[in-house]
């Protein structure tokens, strides 16, 4: 499956079991997700999107009552450090690492024009 098809399915969500015949247009999903698919591959994208949504429908049918959430392969209670006050770098030390600054803040090039 293409990465963009999975992204499109994420934006779309799943069809409901009560309305399995509902068809989603790959073109509409691509437009909503702002994904630019070549027009000659839209049939393949539609097929892949239908396969993804069918799989998600299958997952929605699973009975997960009593199934514990999975957080990782290892039992670890050390995922978060304790919240302790520690000394920090001074402003001068932090700004010394920047290519441009005004003595108080980082200076970055404009993103949306001048």
Overall number of strands: 0
Structural class of the helix and strand makeup? mainly alpha
Major pleated sheet:
none
What amount of the residues lies in strands? under 5%
The SSE order reads HHHH
Choose one word for the global shape: flat
The chain-level mean pLDDT equals 79
Q: Can I get a quick summary?
A:
The chain is mainly α and 114 residues long.
Task: Give an overview of the whole structure.
With 114 residues, the chain is mostly helical. The chain has a domain at 3-60. It is 37% helix and 0% strand. The chain has 4 helices and no strands. α1 crosses α2 and α1 crosses α3. The longest helix is centred in the middle third of the chain and has 19 residues, at 42-60. The chain starts with a helix and ends in a 19-residue tail after the last helix. Residues 14-18 have low confidence and may be disordered.
Describe the SSE topology.
Elements: H1 3-12, H2 26-33, H3 42-60, H4 91-95
Essential attributes:
114 residues; 37% helix; 4 helices; mainly alpha
